Amino acid sequence: MSNLKVDDRGWSALTLGDRIRQIELEGYLVLPDLLTPDHLNELRSETANLETRPVDYSIYQQGCPAIQFSGGAITELVAHPPTISFLRELFGFDIVFVSYAYARSEPGHPGISLHTDGQPYGSEIFGYEGSVPFMVRVLYYLQDLNEEVSPFRVVPRSHLSMHADANPYKRYSNHPEQVMVPVKSGSAVLINHKVFHGNFPNTGSWAREMLAIA
Predict the structure, then answer these.
(1) In degrees rounded to 5, what are phi and psi of residue 59?
(2) How far apart are CA 90 and CA 93, in angstroms?
(3) Strands of 58-65's sheet, edge to edge?
(4) Beta-strand pair 5-6/179-181
(5) How many other C-beta atoms lie within 10 A of the C-beta of residue 18?
(6) What's the CA angle centered on 139, arms 137 and 145, to 5 degrees?
(7) Which is the most buried residue in 16, 147, 148, 181, by most CB within 10 A?
(8) How does DSSP classify residue 20?
(9) How many other C-beta atoms lie within 10 A of the C-beta of residue 54?
(10) Which string of DSSP letters, residue by residue, matches 102-142?
């Protein structure tokens, strides 16, 4: 991955206009430092009690869907004020909650192929959720994502392509324009649900936990 582009810019320097332009045009955005260390510890203590199941392709990728009614800090995160403030600037005042899931990528996780969460005709994976015109998925990370620990990856502007290769039902193991996005714990990656994205393998020494709210 020596030629891989890494997007580790200073995200805190972006203005509101820069942030809106970034997610509209590039399809992804990092909002840094959304969660304090105490908030992170509270969330980690609650996720440790979730009953998870492995995905079909790896026992090292564990998940727990529909956690919005778990209570405590997990449920309260749905309405986290700094995030809601930005989403209202992006969408307008009324925001519709769609889904909430927990995912853990343990050491040995092979990575997730490039895919979209937007499937306009519905699917067994996303159902009607993926058929909405616009949706943002907020990916809160509870640990640091460096180059070894399952960093986020994305193909910028792929949600804008009209080419047949951008068919939202396709998946790719790699792409020449993919970008690695490392982030610090307590930060969130926001994605347009139509952008091609995934994550890299976890070859590190700790698990990566994520709370994904659409």
Answers:
(1) -70, -10
(2) 9
(3) 28-31, 188-192, 136-141, 208-213, 100-105, 58-65, 53-55
(4) parallel
(5) 11
(6) 145
(7) 181
(8) H
(9) 13
(10) EEEE-TT---EEEE-S--TT--TTTGGGGGSS--EEEEEES
pLDDT digit string, tens, across residues 151-182? 999 999 999 999 999 999 999 999 999 999 99
Q: 19-46: per-residue pLDDT in tens?
A: 999 999 999 999 999 999 999 999 999 9
Cβ count near 37 (within 10 Å): 9
Give the length of the chain: 214
**CA-to-CA distance for 41 and 35, rounded, in angstroms?**
10
Question: What is the pLDDT of the chain when averaged over all its residues?
Answer: 95
Q: Is the dihedral of CA 158, 139, 52, 149 positive or negative?
A: positive
What's the alpha-carbon Rg for the chain, to the nearest Å?
16
Number of other residues whose CB lies within 10 A of the CB of residue 189: 24
Tokens 């956690």 sit at which residue? 67
Task: Please report, as a single letter, which amino acid is at residue 18.
Answer: D
pTM higher than 0.85: yes
- Tens digit of pLDDT for each residue in 82-136? 999 999 999 999 999 999 999 999 999 999 999 999 888 877 777 777 788 889 9
For residue 2, what pLDDT is reported? 58
- The encoded tokens of residue 91 equal 């969408």
